[in-house]
Amino acid sequence: MNLYIRLLLLFFKIKRNHQYQGLLDTVDIDYKALPTDCDINLHLTNSRYLAMMDLSRTWMTERVGLLKQILKRRWFPIVNATAITYIRDIKPMQRYTISTKLVGWDHKYFYIEQKFHSARGLHAIAYVRGVFKSKKGVISVEEMLEVAGFEGKTPILPTEVMHWKEMLEQKKVNNLPK
């Protein structure tokens, strides 16, 4: 239930947003770890990280000026893969920031980096691979970049993302029916 309230609050924040950033800029959003976000170990539960990442990517989409365009076209985001490393716990009632950044793309997928941090330091870092879809299928990277008005150079993917991509491909190959 508390995520529905956070989603509603995010929609109000989106409605009032008049500041936009570049497609490759880092977008920050602040949260507080509520008691309902925490598990019996008295820290943010692992599943909540992923849910908060979803909200943060929605905010990033708004801040880079894409949300209205995506909604108008009835596109929807699909996460294909996520890798997260937990570094330091987030305690109940602790304030933290999620920094979300589009770090690049390939022929099919977008790659996003998300960092959880606070005054105590870095808590977690995650990479998300995804696409946008419509009823007709996957939206091409080229079409998405055109809608975003991006005319810059394609960024070089970070080394850790390249290794992650290779690992994902190997997982797929190793698990195909023989």
UniProtKB/TrEMBL annotation:
Top-level division of the source organism's lineage = Bacteria
Q: Which Pfam families match?
A: 4HBT_2
Coiled-coil stretches are none
Q: PANTHER family, alphabetically? A: PROTEIN THEM6 (PTHR12475:SF4), PTHR12475
What is the protein name stated in its UniProt record?
Thioesterase
Organism name: Pseudoalteromonas aliena SW19
